[in-house]
């Protein structure tokens, strides 16, 4: 029997051999015009394992012969790989110049393969051919990654050869563990066939989340895996070789139309519904009513507090809903294991590959935020939904109209008036806290001063005081807010953290300051911040059922004048939306740089290029913290570009303990270890309630410890096989929140007044347990 090496396409057949209709010596032209090949099954006992046939112009389709029991592969479909060469058949005379693929006939060499795949291998072959054919014809892959057809074809060829090699060497006895991160972003192609064979190691629900579709089929999984591996080959093998010498200065990233980063969204005719109005106008409430009526929808909030609030509201109303934040994932599953259609989550967690009926983007004015604005802009540009409801201030109106003109979306505007009045009092409280009334909220902009005011008010009045500030865990902020709303604490002292994310029954807002430290210098309060905080006044239930009136005051006349002027100022419209490319775009761009460059340096170069190429609608987010974090990671551990980009979004607070622990987490990723939170040297023994009254552990110490626990949970969401025993982390987090709450409740002295304590030797949770 002659085995021909047919270029460009392939079909894999297990335990079959191929006859060309009895005409083994047909010429190349004769074989080109042949309409079918017959495949007859051979006995498994004969030791025949499989034969590989590559065919350039046809994909072999299966149909059965009732009379022979064999299979007919009809030559009807186009080529899998678009090579232009006409010499698609190698005659026997070409043996010396070309390598032939041989029939693998040693069953003993692969004793488990036939047993494992004998019954299902034909179906496996069909899925593989089908997925490969779709990938070849998928123009969106080339468009999305902005690559040439030639580069894609090179990658397809490498992928094809890799598949052939892996099938030749497949051994089902080889250990294989299918991790979620490998499914989401493969780091190598060497276990491609292992992944395809073992797709059932991941639940359909997991595949649904990974791929971003509701109904998952084997074909969809095959297509996804092949596309991801093709991308890996393209970015790591093909493009670096084709673009090794292009100078950095000549490779700017064009920001003139970032909407092209999301080709799937551009295929849709979307409608953007704007719900615009001041604080306490009911805009978000109305958008959520629309969300509740759809089958598949996503609420994207700025904070996990808001995401959980919407989640709990839906659940109380009898609606099934999932929760998706950076630190917490809750799937609402029915008896068949299907996820709920509605999801409430943070803005960064919205899937831009999933198709929705309705998406709600809350606090849309945040798209102008220097650090996080990119998340809102990317969601607005990339959300795959028929309707996108955006809620926020009127300042975004012209900008969204301009963006919609670029994306081709329809725009509907719904404007809202404040549900109650807002009155600026003529006189300040004159620095006299005895003039305070129940329901007052005092605004300061540093934790140190907030705690100082709390102690002073409690000392000079009979009021109990709750506090809310940024570094306080969201769960404790919610508990403090509940104390204030219930009247258990009559006064609230807070930072601008109350601007969003908490429902507060505030009767009067009192500004204690008119400037804020930005980390470098003290700057006057921005007008939008003053308007947003002042607008929180009046968010309480009126006993008479009439519209509630909120009041605004200040500590002294100077601050009161600043507040009055700000509230009287017309709306300042947002001019640009902050932007940062999604990871797949950044990874593609990385391939254009010479190997050896540090990712942090390349990101800095992107920053310079983006600044020079951006248009009037978009400007670059402030990525200085991202660069600093990348530099810390690079100096400590070696990771892939994909991992580095993923970890650069980690919520790492700038403290020595948090940063050093995060770098330990990074080393866990690099080593591919599985570790619990108790495996790190942390003072977890201090989370015993008996330390509530222990002054050696301050509020800041417990806030840092809580940040580390939250960071561990964040890592678990992205690397579930490395960061395990999440239940213990949750328990430690609950204990930490309890101690923080009690410390605030029992606070009697200024924690910033230094007091000497005997130094105790540090112990870890594990050593305490063993002792």
UniProtKB/TrEMBL annotation:
SUPFAM superfamilies: P-loop containing nucleoside triphosphate hydrolases. Residues 428-585 form the Helicase C-terminal domain. GO terms for molecular function: ATP binding; hydrolase activity; RNA helicase activity. SMART domains: DEXDc, HELICc. Residues 264-403 form the Helicase ATP-binding domain. It is found in: Mitochondrion. The keyword Transferase does not apply. CDD domains: DEXQc_Suv3, SF2_C_suv3. Its EC number is 3.6.4.13. It catalyses: ATP + H2O = ADP + phosphate + H(+). One of its GO terms (cellular component) is mitochondrial degradosome. Keywords: ATP-binding, Helicase, Hydrolase, Mitochondrion, Nucleotide-binding, Transit peptide. The keyword Cytoplasm does not apply. Pfam families: DEXQc_Suv3, Helicase_C, SUV3_C. GO terms for biological process: mitochondrial RNA 3'-end processing. PANTHER family: ATP-DEPENDENT RNA AND DNA HELICASE, ATP-DEPENDENT RNA HELICASE SUPV3L1, MITOCHONDRIAL-RELATED. This is ATP-dependent RNA helicase SUV3, mitochondrial. It comes from Eremothecium sinecaudum. The lineage of its organism: Eukaryota, Fungi, Dikarya, Ascomycota, Saccharomycotina.
């Amino acid at each position: 029997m002659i085995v021909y090496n047919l270029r460009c396409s392939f079909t894999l057949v297990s335990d079959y051999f191929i006859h060309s209709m009895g005409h083994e010596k047909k010429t190349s032209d004769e074989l080109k015009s042949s309409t079918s090949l017959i495949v007859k099954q051979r006995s498994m006992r004969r030791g025949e394992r499989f034969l590989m046939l590559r065919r350039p112009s046809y994909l072999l389709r299966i149909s059965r012969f009732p009379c022979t029991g064999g299979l007919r592969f009809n030559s009807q479909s186009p080529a899998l790989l678009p090579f232009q060469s006409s010499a698609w058949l190698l005659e026997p005379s070409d043996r010396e110049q070309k390598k032939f693929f041989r029939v693998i006939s040693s069953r003993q060499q692969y004793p488990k393969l036939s047993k494992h795949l004998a019954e299902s291998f034909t179906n496996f072959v069909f899925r593989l051919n089908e997925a490969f054919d779709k990938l070849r014809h998928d123009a969106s892959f080339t468009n999305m990654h902005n690559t040439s057809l030639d580069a894609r074809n090179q990658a397809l060829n490498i992928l094809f050869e890799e598949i052939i090699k892996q099938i030749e060497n497949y051994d089902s006895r080889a250990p294989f563990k299918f991790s979620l991160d490998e499914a989401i972003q493969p780091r190598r192609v060497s276990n491609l066939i292992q992944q395809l064979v073992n797709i059932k190691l991941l639940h359909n629900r997991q595949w649904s989340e990974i791929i971003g579709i509701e109904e998952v089929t084997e074909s969809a999984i095959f297509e996804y895996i092949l596309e991801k591996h093709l991308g890996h080959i393209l970015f790591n093998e093909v493009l670096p070789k084709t673009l090794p010498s292009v100078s950095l200065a000549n490779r700017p990233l064009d920001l003139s139309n970032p909407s092209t980063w999301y080709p799937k969204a551009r295929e849709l005719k979307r409608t953007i519904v704007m719900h615009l109005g001041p604080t306490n106008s009911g805009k978000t409430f109305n958008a959520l009513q629309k969300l509740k009526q759809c089958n598949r929808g996503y609420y994207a909030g700025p904070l996990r507090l808001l995401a959980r609030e919407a989640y709990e509201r839906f659940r109380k109303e009898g609606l099934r809903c999932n929760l998706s934040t950076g630190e917490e994932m809750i799937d609402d599953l029915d008896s068949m294991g299907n996820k709920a259609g509605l999801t409430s989550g943070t803005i960064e967690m919205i899937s831009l590959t999933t198709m929705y009926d309705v998406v709600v983007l809350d606090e849309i004015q945040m798209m102008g935020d220097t650090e996080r604005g990119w998340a809102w802009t990317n969601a607005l540009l990339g959300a795959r939904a028929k309707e996108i409801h955006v809620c926020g201030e009127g300042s975004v109106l012209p900008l969204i109209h301009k963006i919609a003109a670029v994306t081709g979306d329809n725009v509907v505007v719904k404007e809202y008036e404040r549900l109650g009045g807002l009155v600026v009092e003529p006189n300040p409280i004159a620095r006299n806290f005895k003039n305070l009334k129940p329901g007052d909220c005092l605004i300061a902009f540093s934790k140190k001063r907030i705690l100082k005011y709390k102690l002073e008010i409690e000392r000079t009045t009979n009021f109990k005081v709750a506090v809310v500030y940024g570094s306080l865990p969201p769960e404790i902020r919610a508990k403090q807010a509940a104390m204030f709303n219930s009247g258990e604490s009559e006064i609230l002292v807070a930072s601008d953290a109350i601007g969003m994310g908490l429902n507060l029954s505030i009767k009067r807002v009192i500004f204690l300051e008119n400037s804020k430290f930005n980390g470098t210098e003290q700057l006057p309060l921005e007008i939008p911040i003053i308007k947003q905080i002042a607008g929180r006044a009046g968010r309480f239930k009126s006993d008479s059922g009439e519209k509630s009136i909120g009041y605004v005051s200040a500590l002294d006349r100077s601050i009161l004048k600043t507040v009055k002027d700000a509230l009287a100022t017309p709306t300042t419209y947002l001019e640009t939306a902050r932007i940062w490319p999604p990871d797949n775009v950044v990874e593609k761009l990385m391939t254009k740089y010479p190997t050896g460059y540090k990712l942090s340096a390349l990101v800095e170069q992107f920053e310079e290029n983006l600044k020079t190429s951006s248009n009037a609608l978009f400007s670059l987010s402030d990525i200085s913290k991202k660069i600093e974090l990348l530099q810390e990671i690079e100096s400590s551990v070696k990771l892939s570009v994909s991992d580095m980009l993923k970890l650069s979004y980690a919520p790492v607070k700038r403290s020595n303990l948090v940063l050093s622990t995060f770098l330990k987490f990074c080393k866990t990723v690099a080593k591919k270890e599985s570790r619990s939170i108790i495996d790190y040297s942390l003072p977890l023994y201090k989370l015993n309630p008996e330390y509530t009254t222990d002054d050696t552990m301050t509020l800041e110490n417990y806030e840092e410890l809580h940040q580390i626990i939250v960071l561990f949970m964040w890592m678990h969401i992205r690397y579930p096989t490395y960061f395990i025993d999440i239940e213990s982390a949750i328990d430690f987090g609950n204990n930490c929140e309890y101690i923080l709450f009690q410390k605030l409740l029992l606070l009697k002295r200024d924690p910033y007044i230094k007091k000497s304590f005997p130094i105790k030797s540090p112990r870890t949770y594990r050593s305490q347990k063993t002792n």
